[in-house]
Amino acid sequence: xxxxxxxxxxxxxxxxxxxxxxxxxxxxxxxxxxxxxxxxxxxxxxxxxxxxxxxxxxxxxxxxxxxxxxxxxxxxxxxxxxxxxxxxxxxxxxxxxxxxxxxxxxxxxxxxxxxxxxxxxxxxxxxxxxxxxxxxxxxxxxxxxxxxxxxxxxxxxxxxxxxxxxxxxxxxxxxxxxxxxxxxxxxxxxxxxxxxxxxxxxxxxxxxxxxxxxxxxxxxxxxxxxxxxxxxxxxxxxxxxxxxxxxxxxxxxxxxxxxxxxxxxxxxxxxxxxxxxxxxxxxxxxxxxxxxxxxxxxxxxxxxxxxxxxxxxxxxxxxxxxxxxxxxxxxxxxxxxxxxxxxxxxxxxxxxxxxxxxxxxxxxxxxxxxxxxxxxxxxxx
Length: 381
Hints:
This protein is an alpha+beta fold. The chain has helices at about 65, 105-110, 115-120, 160-170, 170-180, 185-190, 195-205, 205-215, 220-230, 230-240, 245-255, 275-285, 310-315, 325, 340-350, 370-380; strands spanning about 5-10, 20-25, 30-35, 35-40, 45-50, 60-65, 70-75, 80-85, 85-90, 95-100, 130, 135-140, 145, 270, 295-300, 305-310, 335, 355-360, 365-370.
């Protein structure tokens, strides 16, 4: 009848099912319903017979050879990008299903027809199968790579792992993966990328999407990215942001790179000294702030000046009716926003601090530097 050239499978996230076979016939390639095929194994060969050559529509499906074989995939467990050398199918009573991909040498040698020869010579070929459920597939649509399914599996990865994976793809593919992330996830991943990749990602997004992602990032990280963009592009993105976020980032961008203010986050948690523990805990539950912002609760007087701090541990162990004044540590370590940036590492290591409040010369809190920003500063040097 013809030669089998490909299989069409459903887009199921677990185990895609073969629904059609593409067969090259004297009249051209035909897409035929797989339910009408009979597959039998004789020794080491498979024999395929078609009982009824029924052509079907495969809209919404994808082709294994065209879209998966030799393509790049994301190995979720291995947290890396790999290439598919072969595809493992399971033939069951319920149908034929994709169960794994082969990324090992054996799959490649089998493809080019030398696996049996090498095995006969006693040469053992390494085989490595990855279950389909551990794979996020990148398939082709109109010659453009897109994700074939939802990002549920990618969302199980740590942002730094996902950033590494995206950086391993070409720019076009990386952009398609990044665009599919929601704003909060995109912000977390963007924060972990190298500076040159950050710029490519931001410049590849619409200004609305880019501004939304930057707003989700800590203000100091957003300011760092905007600082290296062209001034006109940075201004365009800033104008798309909410006024509060825009003002915070603009203030940070005005600091010299050598002072503490340049890497501080303009976000922090502070309450007046007469605030009850109950009120603070209620706020934390409702606002759900980033983990780094919760290291310490800063305490101010009625004029907003820094007077002390309360650790999260002390807050949890305190009575709900206690006020912050009765819990706070008055001997608080702080830095001025125009202090030399080198003082950060010295102060953080000397006093074992998880974060450091940053104040102006009127003792008003203007920001907060958390430990990972300090580590980044050390590593850069």
